[in-house]
Write a structure and sequence with these properties.
CATH architecture of the largest domain in chain A: 3-Layer(aba) Sandwich
Low-confidence stretches of chain B: none
CATH class of one domain in chain B: Alpha Beta
Distance between the termini of chain B: 35 Å
CATH architecture of one domain in chain B: 2-Layer Sandwich
Radius of gyration of chain A: 21 Å
Mean pLDDT of chain B: 90
Structural class of chain B: alpha+beta
Order of helices and strands of chain A: EHEHEHEHEHEHEEHEEHEEHEEHEHEHE
Helix content of chain B: 10-25%
Oligomer: heterodimer
CATH class of the largest domain in chain A: Alpha Beta
CATH topology of one domain in chain B: Alpha-Beta Plaits
Number of domains of chain A: 2
Number of helices of chain A: 12
Largest interface: A-B, 32 and 18 residues
Mean pLDDT of chain A: 97
Distance between the termini of chain A: 52 Å
Low-confidence stretches of chain A: none
Chain lengths: 410, 99
């Protein structure tokens, strides 16, 4: 591998790292509405605009619904569009998230993950973006501010790939990452611009059989998002699934290309494993808690316990093959969910993991832990308790209680 | 289905229609339609501003407004907002709706 590009170490919190990445990606349009804990991203970006450091058209909209609509429209003119949101703001975008993915607009959005009301809570959990699971966006969850920076850059390259052409959410845990200062290695602006390049446009065939770029252009008038009747709507949804299938490959490629550039990679881009190769018990987790889990895994390894971790970095598209390959041979698995699916059998991540392993000849017992809701701290001692439960489950091969609430007062 | 429809692999993405939407006439399903009393209208253009569809147009050469019934949905906002009550909503005969 060649020498990584020259980098500068800066003290940045997650939000600042995201704003800087968006700046370096030469974004044409940012339309946003402030909401905690995402606020710093847009605040910081508006500073760049005010200082003339970027050429970006910055639109202060009256709501998140309008912010997403403006990003979509900008993206459809061929512009590179970016926004950030969280919690209620993301929920208000709900309708436009589907329109954006349906229009195949490669908008990139940072979500500083935060709980949803009621009761009102501004702290971190993943209920907001997990509720947008089926919105047709690629979902990438990061573990650190460094990864937040890296993933925003990667997100444009993934989203704008012509075989993908889908919007991407980069989720970073509210406060834990968004507001925590960290040493972040930053590439030069030129290096980033060169890495992601100019946005390419997909093409469509007109009624006259002419191939033209998919772009709102007065020279080539076209209608975006018109009605599709029952005889065609279904086909367009199938195309979106193909975009997701292609994203599985593209995310891995971009992860490797970025590793060559920066010296940093996150597993294969889809899953990031830690001491999993020979693990007997494994925890699956999403986001910043994986950092704490690594500490716990280290402790247990020192004590001779074969503990491992799988960090699910890409939640959509779900890397089913990687999950099967990495997890089928462990003796017991615990899946951590930082959101709830009320009335369901466990959390969203639990359902996916259990579902992915169902067809394996040998599927290990799987237990679910809901944790950290509304920003509740999850301590190493509690996570150690999860591994201790797994040792018991691995011995008996049985899960007594499928869904557990970690750190909840009973 | 007729079987002439194409598969998802054969069609362009995103359901884009390669024609301008200006040509899509959307006013043919209205129930009510506005009628203007020329004696009462002061051409204040309040209706032009309030029409959510932009279906009431100002014609500078005639110094007057006109209703574009190809796009008017018959919502009645113009009649409601008209300060001189010059606009009334009527139930037209089928053939009059697209005039």
């Amino acid at each position: 591998m060649k020498e990584p590009a020259k980098q500068e170490t800066m003290a940045l919190n997650g939000d600042e790292a995201v704003a800087l990445a968006a700046k370096q990606c030469d974004v044409d349009v940012v339309a946003a509405y402030p909401i905690t804990p995402q606020t710093i991203i847009v605040e910081k970006f508006s500073e760049y605009v005010a200082n003339g450091e970027v050429q970006t058209e910055f639109i202060c909209t009256e709501s998140e619904h309008s912010a997403m609509t403006a990003c979509l429209a900008a993206s459809l003119t061929g512009a590179r569009a970016f926004t950030a949101s969280a919690s209620a703001g993301l929920a208000l975008m709900h309708e436009m998230l589907f329109v954006t993915s349906g229009c195949r607009a490669p908008v990139v959005m940072a979500v500083a993950n935060r709980a949803l009301s009621a009761p009102l809570n501004i702290h971190g959990d993943q209920s907001d973006s997990m509720a947008e699971r089926d919105s047709g966006w690629v979902h990438i969850y990061v573990e650190s501010s460094q990864e937040a920076y890296d993933s925003i850059i990667q997100a444009f390259k993934i989203a704008e790939d012509l075989n993908v052409s889908l919007p991407v959410i980069v989720g970073l845990d509210g406060f834990t990452l968004s507001h925590s200062l960290e040493n972040v290695d930053v590439l030069s602006e030129d290096t980033v611009k060169q890495f992601i390049g100019e946005r390419q446009l997909p093409t469509v065939v007109t009624h006259e059989g002419k191939t033209v770029p998919l772009k709102l252009d007065p020279e080539n008038p076209m209608t975006m998002g018109p009605i599709a009747f029952p005889n065609y709507y279904f086909e367009f949804k199938r195309q979106q699934q193909e975009g997701m299938n292609n994203a599985l490959r593209r995310i891995q490629e971009v992860n490797s290309e970025y590793a060559e550039l920066s010296g940093r990679s996150y597993g294969n881009g889809l899953v990031d494993t830690y001491n999993l190769e020979d693990a007997e018990i494994a925890v699956v987790c999403v986001g910043s808690t994986c950092g704490t889990l690594k500490v716990v895994v280290d402790e247990l390894r020192q004590e001779g316990v074969k503990a491992g971790l799988l960090r699910l970095r890409t939640f959509r598209p779900l890397p089913v093959e990687d999950l099967r390959k990495s997890l089928a041979n462990v003796a017991a698995i615990a899946v951590m969910d930082k959101s709830m699916s009320f009335g369901g059998l466990g959390g969203a991540v639990f359902c996916e993991i259990r579902h992915a392993l169902y067809d394996e000849k040998q599927h290990p017992p799987i237990v679910n832990y809901i944790y950290g809701l509304g920003g509740r701290d999850t301590r190493p001692s509690e996570l150690r308790g999860v591994f201790e439960d797994l040792i018991g489950i691995a011995k008996t091969g049985r899960v007594e209680k499928q869904v557990n609430y970690l750190g909840l007062r009973e | 289905m007729s079987g002439k429809e194409k598969s998802w692999k054969e069609i362009s993405i995103a359901g884009v229609c390669s024609k301008s939407s200006v040509g899509f006439l959307t006013g043919d399903w209205k129930t009510y339609m506005p009628v203007r009393d020329l004696q009462k209208c002061t051409k204040c253009l309040t209706c032009v501003m309030f029409c959510p569809e932009g279906a009431i147009k100002w014609q500078p050469e005639k110094g007057d407004i006109w209703f574009d019934f190809s796009f008017c949905k018959g919502c009645g906002i113009c009649a409601n907002e008209c300060p001189t009550k010059a606009i009334t909503m009527i139930l037209p005969k089928e053939e009059e709706k697209e005039k």
